[in-house]
Amino acid sequence: MSSNAFNKPLKLHFKSSKMITIIIAAVHLLVALIVVSMTQSPSKFALLFLLIIIVSSYQYFYRWHVVRTLSKSILELHINSSGDWSVITSVAKHNNIIPLDSSFSSQYLIVINFNVHKENKYTLLITKDMTTESEFRRLRVRLKIKQ
Questions:
Q1: CB 87 within 8 A of CB 122
Q2: Phi, psi (5° rounding) for residue 24?
Q3: Is 137 exposed, middle or buried (0-12, 13-18, 19+ CB in 10 A)?
Q4: Rounded distance, CA 69 to CA 120, Å?
Q5: DSSP-assigned letters across all residues of 40-53
Q6: Pairing of strands 104-105, 10-13
Q7: Concatenated DSSP letters for 103-144?
Q8: 115-133 pLDDT tens trace
């Protein structure tokens, strides 16, 4: 393997992301608007119940992907020079992680899905504002070649 910027070890510790906060808020707001507009004369109790569920969902995803306080929240991603991936959550470090084919990479967003011990599915959302431009680019390349 030749030595270049894309096969050097990569250690990412993620910053909070305004983009992910906006995405999560927009999706939940859209769902709330759809619920309110699609229900024909719902009782106030039913409407309140649905809105509480939507707000609870927003809080869950905000804690998972923005403030990273849940046990399945990923705090760090490491890729060594041999191409081995590992992640650190608030409760454990998982080694020899392989991104699933359902992972996705674009110019502004990276979604990495992987399984740990064939039972726990993890998802990591990464936007450009969470890392440096160089780290983001290197991660996109590593994900495309799965190394």
A1: yes
A2: -65, -45
A3: middle
A4: 17
A5: SS--HHHHHHHHHH
A6: unpaired
A7: -EE-SSEEEEEEEETTTEEEEEEEEGGGS-HHHHHHHHHHHH
A8: 887 777 889 999 999 999 9
Q: For the sheet with 93-97, list strands across it.
A: 10-13, 74-79, 85-89, 93-97
> Does residue 147 have a pLDDT over 80?
no
Tokens linked to 2: 């030749």
Whether this prediction's pTM lies above 0.85 is answered by no
AA letter at 24? I
Give pLDDT, residue 6. Answer: 62
Per-residue pLDDT tens for 23-35?
Answer: 999 999 999 998 8
Q: Which two tokens stand for residue 76?
A: 């760090």
DSSP symbol at 82: T
**Residue whose pair of structure tokens reads 């969470």 in the numeric block:** 130
Detail the DSSP E strand segments found in 33-84: 74-79
